[in-house]
Please model this.
Amino acid sequence: MVDLAHGLKTLAGLLFRRPLLGVCVIPVRPDGTLVLILRRDNRRWGLPGGLVDWGEDVITAARRELREETGLSSAEVDRLVGVYSQPGRDPRFHSVCVAVAMRVPNQPYGADPREVRAVQAFAPDALPWEHLAHDHRQHLEDFFQGKTVLT
Model:
């Protein structure tokens, strides 16, 4: 009985005490503007993104989240910006975020009203720096500095 309890405790730890894997997309339009979403949960601006689904690779998840949240259905990967794994980077849970920059040709629109209040393209000098969600300020700073980071 002790071995079974220990085994179940170990299994639960393996399944439930691991960081989740997510993606953030830095969508860049041909005119150099960046697309951000106004999040419904915290009313802060952020990068489109979310969790990678079971059986899905990171780039597929990035394209899916971009399409679901902004309506942008065609996107070309520009570059990896970074992998962000600090335990406090997302106040909801411990997640590891892979941030990628993608070139997007279309006009965005709010595609998922359950998650997104608004979608807007911002010029780099007009980004809402003081009203960004999670650690998205760091992602954008690294993007503008041309960095590829692992934190």
Notes: The chain has one domain: 19-150.
